[in-house]
């Protein structure tokens, strides 16, 4: 019978069943492949989204670092200006202190000279009075 079935096309049904099975298996394989591709696409899109978010964060971090550097540079400039100002103030105060020291020394010298001048004045006054008394005694007697 198998011979007659093959002769009259009966064997084709068995081949058709094998083809149907093969076709259904092929369709299932295609569906599985399509699902895997969808999963990969979703994973790729997720990875791209993650990388784009990471890139955006890196750009934001880079701009923050640039901003911090700018603030640091400005702060350093201001600190240098303040250092220069304080050094000028220090030199001015040093000059004033030197002038005050010299003024103090001059004031002490003036006080000493004034005391000496007073001694000389009083000494000469006493000598003049004594001289006048001697002259009076000499001429009046």
From TrEMBL:
Its domain of life reads: Eukaryota
Mind listing the UniProt keywords for this protein, alphabetically? Membrane, Protein transport, Transmembrane, Transmembrane helix, Transport
For this protein, the record's SUPFAM superfamilies field holds: SNARE fusion complex
Q: What is its main location?
A: membrane
What GO CC annotations are associated with the protein?
endoplasmic reticulum membrane; ER to Golgi transport vesicle membrane; Golgi apparatus; late endosome membrane; SNARE complex
Gene Ontology molecular function, alphabetical: SNAP receptor activity; SNARE binding
Pfam families attached here? V-SNARE_C
The record's subcellular location field reads:
Membrane
Q: Name one GO biological process term.
A: vesicle fusion
**What PANTHER family does this protein's entry cite?**
GOLGI SNAP RECEPTOR COMPLEX MEMBER 2, VESICLE TRANSPORT V-SNARE PROTEIN VTI1-RELATED
What's this protein's name? t-SNARE coiled-coil homology domain-containing protein
Task: Write the lineage as a comma-separated list.
Answer: Eukaryota, Metazoa, Ecdysozoa, Arthropoda, Chelicerata
């Amino acid at each position: 019978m198998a011979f007659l079935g093959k002769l009259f096309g009966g064997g084709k049904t068995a081949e058709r069943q094998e083809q149907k099975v093969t076709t259904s298996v092929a369709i299932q394989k295609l569906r599985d492949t399509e699902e895997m591709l969808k999963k990969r696409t979703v994973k790729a899109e997720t990875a791209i989204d993650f990388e784009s978010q990471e890139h955006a964060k890196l750009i934001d971090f880079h701009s923050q670092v640039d901003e911090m550097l700018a603030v640091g540079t400005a702060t350093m400039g201001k600190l240098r200006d303040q250092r220069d100002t304080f050094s000028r103030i220090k030199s001015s105060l040093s000059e004033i202190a030197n002038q005050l020291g010299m003024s103090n020394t001059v004031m002490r010298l003036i006080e000493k000279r004034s005391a000496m001048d007073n001694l000389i004045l009083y000494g000469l006054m006493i000598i003049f009075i004594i001289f006048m008394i001697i002259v009076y005694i000499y001429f009046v007697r």
